[in-house]
Amino acid sequence: MTETAASSVPIPDAANWACPLPLRDSPNIVMGHGGGGAMTAELIDLLFLPAFGAAAAAEMGDSAVLAIGDSRIAFSTDSFVVKPMFFPGGCIGDLAVNGTVNDLAMAGATPLVLSTAFILQEGTPLSVIERIADAMGRAAEAAGVKLVTGDTKVIDNTSGGPGDVYVNTTGIGLVPDGMDIGPARARVGDAVLVSGDIGVHGVAVLSCREGLEFGTTVASDTAPLNGLVEAMIATGADIRALRDPTRGGMAASLNEIAKASGVGMHLVEADVPVPQSVKDACGLLGLDPFQVANEGKLVAIVAPGDADRVLDAMRAHPQGVGARLIGRCVSDHPTMVVAATGLGGTRVVDMPIGEQLPRIC
Amino acid sequence: MTETAASSVPIPDAANWACPLPLRDSPNIVMGHGGGGAMTAELIDLLFLPAFGAAAAAEMGDSAVLAIGDSRIAFSTDSFVVKPMFFPGGCIGDLAVNGTVNDLAMAGATPLVLSTAFILQEGTPLSVIERIADAMGRAAEAAGVKLVTGDTKVIDNTSGGPGDVYVNTTGIGLVPDGMDIGPARARVGDAVLVSGDIGVHGVAVLSCREGLEFGTTVASDTAPLNGLVEAMIATGADIRALRDPTRGGMAASLNEIAKASGVGMHLVEADVPVPQSVKDACGLLGLDPFQVANEGKLVAIVAPGDADRVLDAMRAHPQGVGARLIGRCVSDHPTMVVAATGLGGTRVVDMPIGEQLPRIC
């Protein structure tokens, strides 16, 4: 890096710089900072937000809700760096569209438009780019969103390996009048629901990256969830909070909600749908399926009396066929998520610290 | 790349794949595809738009204008990959904020909010990230926009070099009622204005990248232009088109407008403000200053009778002190930009093909 006296930004003395992030001693970025767990939260809370200063909105969440004239819109951004770019069930293209569509849907918004920004490494075959763009077009059509503006940058390929592609999508959705879904709204007694099998995306990517076989092929669950959310909202139930558990898995999503709402959560492990192939893979690799990424699943916190009709509506939708009640919000152990194990004991379902599976999305 | 039968995306046979881009024989991405010139346009028109299919909006421009309820918003995205990340006059952080603020301003919109998405290479010092974020916060405050949502991903560092940082910003601006600024609105007789010295940003980055000295230090002109645009609009003049000439320089911006409007443009080379240091650097390196990137300048096409009062308003604003009338829209040579040279001849001011200066923004 070239440092010049003319730079308008004060240059910290790196040697004497007090690193504000306590979880790691390293003064450098490590893979775990991108894992969506505690290290990512630390990076945002202790470095980005103080540095942004007064320009930062109070909460830099997965999506922001803004008033524009008489309307409210949701606004969300995500970059995708998944490796490999093509995996069973999908590729970086549909993942990028579905990921931002889902972030908007989790705010109860109807996704309208996406921007698409590509960073392409020199040497990437154009046929690969076309295939990714084709997947994006199909995914956008399936989700009912338009791709309205874009950007393309090219970076040099210093590694000499095959070209990497990074895709950013940023989306705008319309939040219906009266919609109030947010992580701080969970209350004691609320039901905790999941829309189907968890851990599938992470295992699908990992299996093709490491060349591992787990009996049957596991295909990513990448899918748009806006239709499912619409069906859930149409029941008129009080849906308190929604999250699509991507990086950090179900554990990260439920811990975020428990922390924001100040409630505890009590899950029944045996009620959480985990496919045998995911169990096998996680057993072999020492992973917790609750911490593995999903790309077409959601967790929902709903008012106690509304759980049954929401579950019925979910099961009637293609993306929610495997929906299950997996636990309750409780007054015990506030901000902590605990699961009853199959052996009659309980275990803490922790927020993951760093990154179990780097570059999973 | 791992190919699997379970992938949901059809796999083109790369060997028999007919590359749709005529400008280069290479079936792979080259640096020029990111240059903002003819090769970038080809990539968008012949690969991205057909692949996106029905999901693509008719025009994937620098920014899209959308109706939300009773309001109109502008929506724009840009990724920044500039190398080095710190250069005289600024860094990738303020560049990323100003770049998207300016794209929104060029639609006549008041920029409101930005998303910020980081792709960080493993090993990047946290002190560098903090410095970039600090610059983003200051630039956002200066431009009057809020940073409301974000994302962080980490990629492995296969090159072993110092960590690279890529920043995407995507912004939303409010388009005032009745505002109608667009590249297709130029008419014969219109005045062509530029807000000040051109070519500065490109030479600033290049000089510190290549370790070159051009007599005096050239500092980047990175700056927010929304205040200048507001002042121009406040005159009540008929402003037909605005562009901030970044990648591809003034030549690319004027060619885009000439093409979209079907008019010719006649410039007077001696009236275009080019600092001596930029002339020297371009002479040495064989570059055309008209094709070198700017990050704090705009070109404006205004109705014939309105040029003087717009120029007065520009010169009264800190970002427009050096504003000049540099030419006219003409009926001759439609869609072509031509300049009268100092030697009494004329030359065609071409759209750049590829990339003069890779990774300039």
From TrEMBL, chains A, B:
Which residue ranges does the record assign to the PurM-like C-terminal domain?
187-332
- What region holds the PurM-like N-terminal domain? 61-175
Q: Which InterPro entries does the UniProt record give?
A: HypE, PurM-like_C_dom, PurM-like_C_sf, PurM-like_N, PurM-like_N_sf
An example of a Pfam family matching this protein is AIRS
Quote the PANTHER family the UniProt record gives.
CARBAMOYL DEHYDRATASE HYPE, HYDROGENASE ISOENZYMES FORMATION PROTEIN HYPE
User: Can you tell me which family this protein belongs to?
Assistant: Belongs to the HypE family.
**Name recorded for this polypeptide:** Hydrogenase expression/formation protein HypE
Q: Which species is the source of this protein?
A: Tsukamurella soli
What's the name of its gene?
hypE_1
